[in-house]
Amino acid sequence: MFTGIIEAVGNISTITSKGSDFEVSVNCDTLDLADVKIGDSIATNGICLTVVKLTDNSYVADLSIETLSRTAFNYYKVGQAVNLEKAMLPTTRFGGHIVSGHVDAVAEVIECRTSGRAIDIWVRVPSQIEKYLSEKGSVTVDGVSLTVNAVRGNEFKLTIVPHTVVETTIADFKAGNKINIEVDILARYIERLLLVDKPEDKQSKISMDLLERNGFLL
Fold first, then answer.
1. pLDDT (tens digit, 9 = 90+) per residue, 27-53?
2. Which parts of the sequence belong to the Lumazine-binding domain (predicted)?
3. Which domains, from first to last, does the chain contain?
4. 3-class secondary structure for 133-197?
5. pTM for the complete prediction?
């Protein structure tokens, strides 16, 4: 679990084919890896990756076919800058929102425009996830916890403050960039709760109807 508050920006040093999937090595000179162990998770541009090898200033993770099919990793090359966040601890200050590191879709940046010292960015998402976006709701973009400031169909606007511009890769965004999107996990669970009929509820209603018809309920 993560918070979407980026701790460092690293870069991809190698992408190695391992048959049908890949292994990626990430340099992270400014991320403290002293408390990271093999098997720990690091969000890499919003993708929860498991550390399989570790040095003082880098880590290696596997990229499964599932990860490649659902994220923007297919567009990445050696040298790609990536936002990094270690998995949160129980004592971590919760500055962002609940981020699972499970990417919902690859979106496209369609416009970047300065607004004072901030940057307004419009993003287009696949139509199937537009229902999860709401004005002033939360969204994760390449691992960064952000606020949705406007929605028009399957497009939404972000306003990036100067601190976030400096501390993340968002300063490099331009029209046409492919980015990882994770919607608010609460929206996903609420949808599931509303759509799924509980068999036990149906059975309870049937049982109550039978009791009533047979005169056991007044």
1. 999 999 999 999 999 999 999 999 999
2. 1-97, 98-194
3. 8-86 (2.40.30.20), 105-197 (2.40.30.20)
4. CCCCCEEEECCEEEEEEEEECCEEEEEECHHHHHHCHHHHCCCCCEEEEEECHHHHHHHHHHHCC
5. 0.85
